[in-house]
Amino acid sequence: MSKKVVLTGDRPTGKLHIGHYVGSLRERVKMQESGEFNPFIMIADQQALTDNARDPEKIRRSLTEVALDYLAVGLDPAKSTLFVQSQIPALAELNLYYLNLVTVSRLERNPTVKAEIQQKNFNRSIPAGFFTYPVSQTADITAFKADLVPVGDDQEPMLEQAREIVRTFNSIYGDVLVEPEGVFPPKGQGRIPGLDGNAKMSKSLGNAIYLSDDEDTLKKKVMSMYTDPNHIHVEDPGQVEGNVVFTYLDIFDKDVAKVQELKEQYRHGGLGDVKIKRYLMEVLNAELAPIRQRRAEFATDLPAVMDMLKAGSDRANQVAAKTLDEVKDAMGLNYFK
Ligand code: TRP
After folding, report:
1. What is the tens place of the pLDDT at every residue in 267-316?
2. Which residues of 139-155 are buried (b: 16+ CB within 10 A; e: fewer)?
């Protein structure tokens, strides 16, 4: 039995934060370590360019940062193929063929893209490459014949779109492509709010904890977290719902009983914000310190990181080129074979 193929990736538009970590990085490492899969992890620099075309330097810089974040969380080039999207020409070619299999109105219905268009105030000035990135993402997924795609909840519409394109392609040209399945975090576990209580943690909102944050920065961020604005004196009863410190404890603290106890105490009054923040700091630091340390070690040899990405990209290229060849065979485009 051949192992199930896993394909996933991230846009390099900055460093990765703990939102990425709980949303999918953790799951990828788990899948890698189980030994049951053949994982491909892609740095989606072309997708990052779809809304950063005028700032390629940012993407170039972020490529290294994301590679370091991957290695830091435990993605291991000996077990997972880590590669760079722009170095795989077959992806762009597949994208071109798939673009003919979707309509503009279907693309307009993608809720994640819709939300991003609003958020970025594009109005009608949407870069066409941005508008169609779910199609390019389908190329990423299908080029490796991925069975599974471990991603955050916001990527569900991309999977839906990918499956539709696969079905359309296969029904017209014959069974070449594999329908992928999304692997999402367990309910309530895959999303972490920002430090300020905003439902989304993001760089642009300035409310993120980065995997690369040093201990001092982490401490400052935890101390600045949104709690219960009406919890002023230690003895005041406090609210746990919507209190970011408790949300984080729910996600990171393995000692569930202890968290329950702290919640009770907080609700009754008598537990100060500084105290629970100190406790959260310990919990977070226990998880992040080894990541931070590994990251610093890898960062001392950036040429080795680039070599690793090159080796991964070479491997990925072979797989993607083979799929493209099958696609062109099925479409009758290999005229000179
Ligand atoms: N859209 C993904 C994100 O924003 C990144 C990505 C690009 C991706 N291609 C992919 C994820 C293929 C999974 C599979 O995070």
Report:
1. 999 999 999 999 999 999 999 999 999 999 999 999 999 999 999 999 99
2. bbbbbbbbbbbbbbebb
CATH code of residue 251: 1.10.240.10
pLDDT, one tens digit per residue, over 113-134 is: 999 888 888 877 899 999 999 9
Provide the edge-to-edge strand list for the sheet that holds 148-150.
81-84, 37-43, 4-10, 148-150, 181-183
Do 96 and 178 belong together in one domain?
Answer: yes
> Which tokens go with 251?
């996600």
Please tell me the distance between residue 276's alpha carbon and the centre of ligand 1 in angstroms. 35
Best mutation site among 70, 95, 130, 140 for ligand 1, i.e. most ligand atoms within 8 A of its Cβ? 140
Whether 100 and 45 share a structural domain = yes
Residues 22, 132, single domain; the answer is: yes
Q: Is the CB of 45 under 6 A from ligand 1?
A: no
How many A from CA of 85 to the centre of ligand 1?
Answer: 10
Mean pLDDT estimate for the chain: 95
CATH number for the domain that contains residue 307: 3.40.50.620
Query: Looking at the domain assignment, is residue 70 inside a domain?
Result: yes
Cβ neighbour number for residue 56 with a 10 Å cutoff: 12
In a domain? residue 153: yes
**Which two three-digit tokens encode residue 284?**
């977070």
The pTM for the full model equals 0.94
228 lines ligand 1 (CB under 6 A): no
Q: Is 141 in the pocket of ligand 1 (CB under 6 A)?
A: yes
Q: Is residue 45 part of a domain?
A: yes
Same structural domain for residues 258 and 130?
Answer: no
| Residue of 155, 161, 184 to test ligand 1 pocket, by largest number of atoms within 8 Å of CB | 155
Expressed in angstroms and rounded, the spacing between residue 29 Cα and the centre of ligand 1 is 16
Q: Which domain holds residue 284?
A: 215-296
Cβ(44) to ligand 1 under 6 A?
yes
Contact present, 193 and 201 (Cβ < 8 Å): yes
Q: Tell me, yes or no, whether 258 lies in a domain.
A: yes
Whether residues 287 and 166 share a domain: the answer is no
